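Notebook p. 47: complex prediction with S-adenosylmethionine.
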Amino acid sequence: MDCRIVRDLYVKADGELPCDDDVGENVNLGYVSQDPSWNIHAHFSSEKQRHIRNALLSDEEPWPEYCPKCPLLRPNDIFRDTISDRRIETLQIEPSIACGLRCPCCSQPVQVKLRPKPHIMELETLRSLLRSCRDHGYAIETIEYCGQGEPLTHPNFAGLVRIAREIYPETAQRLITNGNYDYHSKIRGELLDQIYVSCDGVEQASYEKYRRRGKVSAVLKFLADAAAHNGDNAPEVTWKYILFEHNDSDPEIAKSHQIALEHDVLLLLIITQTKYKSARFTAENWSDLLMIAPSARIGGVPGFLRYGANPWNSSVVHLHNHFRSDFVAAGIGCDRILFHPNEVLLIEGWALPADKADPLTSVEIAVNGTQVPVCLNAVRRWDVSTDDLWSGYVAPLRTDGNYGTEIVVEVQVRTESGRSEEAKFSTEPYRHVHLDSAMAVRTPLADFHRLKRFITKARAMCRPRV
Ligand SMILES: C[S@@+](CC[C@H](N)C(=O)[O-])C[C@H]1O[C@@H](n2cnc3c(N)ncnc32)[C@H](O)[C@@H]1O
Ligand code: SF4
Ligand code: SF4
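Predicted complex, structure tokens below:
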């Protein structure tokens, strides 16, 4: 039996350390103290922590009153403890439990009424925690600012980020926010590695059905400002869009996808299990979303993975050839074919003009002779080109699932001056490699920090022949 509590640490605004951030909030495991003698290692060595590890190792629920209802329990997964090796995968900080919004499924209003103060994390609490982690040799992979309120209601959110950066300079820091704020005055130029902006829709009428009191125009501005943030302190921005019954229409999803592409942010569509959940898109047919938003990533809430049956299972086929070496008008690459459930195929690749003054105007794709209806040439591929911003394509195709043993992808591109170039890619023979988590179902184009390793090669390929 497994649970991420043996890898994670969750700290509430008042310094309480509960059994993670869901049902286990009812179980107190300790408190962070600002006293210099406070010791994180003693916390992780406590009787309760030993009890959690021993119970999971014996295939027993640590807290029979709570674990059966907790979406974080993994009854069939293999126990994987990193805390004992002094490695915290995610340290979740709750900066504040205040929030200006009133999302109907959120526990925030109840928590504000019932929980003891402080409701805003004191900077010294975070400093004490991180110093103790550092002094006792704990590595921290990611610090996540989230919790049960809105992190940006903290009056000095940037101060928290600065303290964490001072004590753990290499640790990735991620903010999850509703984004109803001015980006620059909240972040104040501090280095956040990732920002997830919860924005469930693009129309005020649908957005405010769940994000009550929120303004979608303010969130889209926050998203755009975060995405436009350049230089060393630029964050990787993800638009987190929870699919509800009121925001799951094709036009609203397609419009969001288009805006996400324009701002160069990753659109993450979430299938939830709560009240108001989308009836159109479920864990069974999630890949249909790729026909509307081909470059989006699709995820679900933790409860979906409870019994190990992974509804996000997809597989990837690596192609026999990825590009030719004798291009004239344009370089064309095809990286992979993703097989998603519900017989949806996604072809991912790139195309670059040989001459930057003669840009590409179209990309057409046929898969085993069938023309792919939607073909996008509007995706940034940092791994291929830094100066040609929109060099990637993603082509979704619904199939009958009957492809024999070989898939042939034909790509034709045209340039502004009328030149054209064609390339053929095949899988011969092919083997499905399973992608085993929702997070793996992502297109490389959105992986902003990927090395630009193909760049020299791609440029060389595109050089005109003499
Ligand atoms: C309590 S919120 C705190 C962070 C911030 N206030 C926000 O809303 O993004 C934590 C997370 O829950 C998500 N969330 C809110 N309502 C949800 C729902 N009905 N289903 C799934 N996730 C939900 C939010 O989008 C956010 O990512
Ligand atoms: S499953 Fe149990 S041990 Fe794990 S976080 Fe939930 S309450 Fe805690
Ligand atoms: S914005 Fe976040 S914290 Fe605020 S009510 Fe909505 S889900 Fe809860």
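Notes: The CA atoms of residues 257 and 293 lie 6 Å apart. The pocket of S-adenosylmethionine (ligand 1) is lined by residues 99, 103, 105-106, 146, 148, 150, 176-178, 198, 240, 242, 272, 274, 301 (CB under 6 Å).
Next step: compare against the earlier run before touching the bench.
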